[in-house]
Amino acid sequence: MDDTQSRLTKDGIRLYEREDFAGMHTAGALAARILDEIAAAVYPGQTTAEIDRRIEEMVARAGATSATIGYKGYQHASCISVNHVVCHGIPGGKVLKDGDILNIDVTVIVDGWYGDSSRMYVAGKLSRKAERLIEVTHDALMVGIEAVKPGNTFGDIGAAIQNFVEGHRMSVVRDFCGHGLGRVFHAPPNVLHYGRPGTGAVLEEGMFFTIEPMVNLGRPETKVLADDWTAVTRDKSLSAQFEHSVGVTADGVDIFTLSPAGKFHPTY
Ligand code: MF3
Ligand code: CO
Ligand code: CO
Questions:
Q1: Which residues line ligand 1 (CB under 6 A)?
Q2: Band of pLDDT at residue 125, cut at 50, 70 and 90
Q3: pLDDT of 69 strictly over 70
Q4: Domains of the chain, each with CATH number or no CATH
Q5: Which helix or strand (DSSP H or E) is residue 8 part of?
C-alpha cells in the first residue's frame, strides 16, 4: 500500500499493514545491534565524539542511513546524554570519567523504515543511586510496554509509567515524549510518559511508536542549553532514559528494538 492509500485513525495516527512489521524489525534490529556493540567503547577516558564516530561507522557498514544526521540541523549519528543531561546531548570532546552514566540514542533508516532506540551505559564503577535510577527507568519502560494492546489507550501507557516511577519517589520528565514512527522519524501521536488511565487515543493494531521515558532523581523540570539541543535537569539531578520502538499487534505488542544479544538491560 503506498502513502496515498495509507490508513489514518481519527487522531491522525497511521495504521500500518501486517507486512510492514518486517521492515520495522530489520531497522530496529540494526539499532539494537549498534547499541549492543557500542558498549565496548564506553569507559573512563573515552570521549563522546569517539563513541559517536564509531556509531556512524557501524551505520555506514550496515549500508543503512543515520536518521539524525541532517535532522533539523543536527549533525551526529547519536545523542549522548551524560549524568544530568536528560536527552539530546551532543557528542563532542567531553571525556567520560569514572562513575558517569550516559544514555546513547541511535536512530537508523533501513529500506525507508526507522529504528529508534536508546539505553543507559556506565563508564567505570556505578554508584548505588545511579544504579537505582537506571533500574527504575528501565523497568518503567517495560511497565509502559506491558500496557500496549488494542483497546488500551495512550493514557494507560503514561499512567503505568508515571505510577511506577513516582512509586519509587523519582520523577517523570514532561517536556519530552515518545512519538509515532515508521516510514517517518516523528509522527503523531505524542506518547506521554505520564497521564490518566482511559484517556487519549485508543491503541489499534498496526500503530508503530516509541516509548522513551526520561526519569530524574530530583524534580522533573528541564531546560535546553544555548546550543539549542542539550536538555538538562534544572536542579542538576541525575537523569536516565530507555527507548524502544514498538508495534501494536492483534493481541499485544511487538518490540522492534530488542537486543539480539539480550543486552538491553545493562549488566553491571
Ligand atoms: N532519537 C531521538 C528520539 O528518540 C531524537 C533525536 S533527534 C536529534 O526521538 F536530532 F537530536 F538527533
Ligand atoms: Co524516539
Ligand atoms: Co531515540
A1: 68, 71-72, 74, 79, 88, 105, 107, 116, 210, 212, 229, 243
A2: very high
A3: yes
A4: 9-255 (3.90.230.10)
A5: strand 7-8
